[in-house]
Design brief:
mainly beta; Immunoglobulin-like; 6 domains; five-stranded mixed sheet; 2 helices
């Protein structure tokens, strides 16, 4: 028995191609095959360790044993002229052909039995056999490389194979080809699984004119992954934080890397490691990372994880993610994780001194002393920021304390002026706390309170008027030199003997004078309620009191005089001009009103009447409308002219005052709603002379 190996034995030197390394074998038939005697040894390599490879032979009386030898299960005479061997595992699926030269035809059998179709799980359509094929990515030249074979049981001499689909006649074109005669499929260049993991092709047979004979049948070419992608972290640097004193095993953060390789293989199975910790005190292994999940947890004990005693509050970890489940041959990616130890309020603030001293001038306000504290917690956090309060000694709420946001000091201020003569010394008890509450096992001790002694310094205070303002009432027009009031001013410096002198500071109308020693105020002019210096019947003057201290101090006070009215102003009438149309049927000329600078009861009601000149009552009439106004009416029409009408107005004061006023009445020409008063044919003078002229004419005609 002779065995011939036909095929690409040299392919093994070109790089690993999953499947049978020798696709075709020839065995010489010599009267039959003896049970247990090997015919040949198959060469199968899945390029991944050849684990759990299964072989099936198309003839049921043949098998491939554990040493990969093809041998008969019993003595076989009717072997037929061809055997097919199917090899398969998780990484490869391929078929080899064994031609038995000189063997007689096998007893009549179906084509399915010859090809073993009942056993081999190939996709098929009638007699066209298309097994799945596998190609490792990143293969090196030379190309093309055979990756499998398509078989047609009905192949005729005038039939050829045709391959179509993405990678052949669709983009990316020129990746695969098929031998038209033998059905061998080859890859033409290196593939990248991360670009295309599976190529879906179709195989058919055609006649020489291109007419399809069999097919199309789907051909699936899977690209076998190689570990050609490193794990990648999304960020070059990660940040996390953990509270000081956290229990061992506290999760700080989770690291996640990504690998573009096939997730179903170990090429994308990642493991995480901490390769460096900086600084490495108090322990080089303060943190641990779960190799599979990437969770970083604390290893250091809670007592050592003390922010105030650690050499730094930030630790940098160098994190490595390695594929191939962390094996030495795996690829790795690196990043940095910065972990900040955050503060909790485990230290109470303490005053740097138990007693603080301050002094302040009486009468002044503002900050008098700054209180300093120590707090070992993290600055600029609620565990460090101080809150001050006065818990004793702040009688009258004259003091307050606020936190200086720049340095955390307590600023004690006087908000209400202090009086040396009342109290020369004040003692305040002040407490300091944090914005955030302390942790349960820490409390505020005696150092969280301090005493502040405040000394009030005596200053020469100015005299104080009482009352201020001083209110008095006087009648206007009192004689010059009349007494108005006596000013009252006292010196707050009761512990000193000082004298006070008075002077005028502001007397707008110049009506007053003051005795510098006694403080008596008298008039130097007539007080006039109707003066422009009087507002709402009140006149105000400002006085100054000066003590004889060193230096002298002053105080001011206001005297407000309410002036009672006297009937010293006669009333007057308004308006002073009226107009009426010459041909007017309505003889009402105007409504005239009275005004008076005086006030009730020296003003209205007013009495408005015609002047005393004779004859006026024959032309004019005055009728009262109300207490301040009257209606002036013509008794008959007048010619176009200007007339002077004398009226008399009298107020209601005691004694009454009257005032004679002449009202100018213009009789105008009115046409088409226009009034023309500019070119009167005669200008009439005083109605008094008009009345006298009429009286003289009447005498002459008698």
């Amino acid at each position: 028995m002779m065995v011939f190996c036909v095929g690409a034995q040299e392919d093994a030197e070109r790089g690993c191609v999953p499947g049978f390394q020798v696709k075709k074998h020839q065995v010489q038939y010599d009267g039959g095959f003896v049970v247990g005697v090997p015919l040949l040894r198959v060469d199968f390599n899945d390029c991944a360790g050849n684990e759990e490879v299964r072989f099936e032979v198309s003839h049921p009386d043949f098998e491939v044993d554990e040493e990969r030898r093809l041998k008969p299960r019993r003595d076989v005479i009717d072997s037929g002229g061809v055997l097919f061997i199917h090899g398969q595992n998780a990484h490869s699926d391929d078929m080899a052909q064994v031609d038995i030269v000189g063997a007689p035809p096998r007893s009549p059998q179906t084509l399915r039995e010859i090809l073993g179709l009942g056993q081999l799980p190939y996709r098929k359509r009638r007699s066209l056999l298309v097994p799945p094929m596998f190609v490792p990515e990143n293969q090196r030249p030379p190309f093309p490389r055979a990756i499998g074979m398509v078989i047609s049981a009905d192949m005729q001499e005038n039939h050829v194979f045709r391959l179509t689909g993405r990678g052949v006649d669709q983009d990316p074109k020129g990746v695969f080809r098929i031998d038209r005669l033998t059905g061998e499929v080859a890859v033409l260049r290196a593939l990248d699984r991360e670009e295309i993991a599976i190529y879906h092709l179709e195989v058919s047979t055609t006649d020489l004119s291109g007419k399809v004979v069999e097919g199309p049948v789907a051909l699936e070419v899977s690209v076998i992954d190689q570990n050609d992608n490193r794990p990648i972290f999304q960020e070059a640097r990660y940040a996390g934080e953990v509270l000081e004193g956290s229990p061992t095993g506290t999760t700080v953060m989770t690291m996640t890397a990504y690998d573009a390789d096939d997730p179903s293989t170990e090429n994308a199975v990642l493991r995480y490691f901490i390769t460096k910790q900086s600084p490495d005190k108090p322990s080089p292994n303060m943190f641990y990372i779960d190799p599979e999940r990437g969770d970083i947890v604390t290893v250091i004990s809670p007592t050592l994880l003390d922010r105030e005693t650690l050499p730094t509050t930030q630790y940098e970890l160098e994190i490595v993610a390695k594929d191939m489940a962390g094996s030495n041959v795996g690829l790795s990616g690196t990043t940095t994780a910065t972990i900040t130890i955050t503060d909790k309020n485990d230290h109470a603030p303490e005053f740097t001194h138990s007693l603080f001293q301050a002094s302040v001038d009486e009468g002044s306000t503002g900050v008098i002393v700054n209180l300093t504290v120590d707090d070992r917690d993290d600055p600029a956090t609620g565990a460090w920021r101080a809150v001050y309060s006065i818990i004793n000694g702040n009688v009258g709420q004259s003091f307050e304390v606020q936190t200086n946001p720049d340095n955390n000091e307590g600023m004690v201020s006087v908000v209400k002026p202090l009086d040396y003569e009342n109290t020369a010394y004040h003692t305040l008890l002040i407490r300091v706390e944090n914005e955030d509450p302390l942790v349960p096992n820490v409390g505020y001790g005696p150092s969280s309170t301090a005493t502040v002694h405040v000394t009030v310094m005596d200053v020469n205070e100015g005299p104080v008027f009482f009352p201020d303002p001083m209110l008095v009432t006087k009648r206007e027009n009192v004689p010059v030199g009349s007494f108005v009031a006596t000013l009252n001013a006292t010196d707050p410096d009761i512990l000193q003997t000082q004298s006070i002198r008075f002077a005028l500071l502001d007397d707008p109308a110049g009506w007053l004078t003051v005795n510098p020693v006694k403080g008596t105020v008298n008039t130097t002019a007539i007080l006039d309620r109707e003066s422009s210096f009087v507002h709402n019947n009140m006149y105000s003057a400002v006085f100054i009191a000066i003590d004889n201290g060193s230096p002298a101090a002053t105080g001011t006070g206001t005297l407000v005089i309410t002036l009672e009215d006297e009937n010293d102003n006669p009333p007057y009438l308004y308006p002073s001009v009226a107009r009426i149309c010459e041909e007017a049927k309505d003889l009402n000329v105007m409504v005239v009103g009275g005004r008076d600078k005086d006030v009730f009861p020296n003003a209205d009601p007013f009495k408005i009447e015609l002047g005393k000149q004779p004859g006026l009552e024959k032309t004019w009439k005055v009728t009262t409308v109300n207490s301040t106004h009257s209606q002036v009416t013509l008794l008959h029409s007048l010619k176009r002219a200007n007339y002077q009408l004398p009226l008399l107005v009298t107020d209601s004061g005691v004694p009454q005052l009257s005032n004679s006023t002449e009202i100018k009445v213009q009789v105008c020409t009115c046409k088409k709603n226009k009034m023309d008063c500019s070119s009167a044919w005669a200008v009439r003078g005083n109605l008094l002379w008009l009345g006298l002229a009429l009286a003289l004419l009447s005498v002459l005609y008698l």
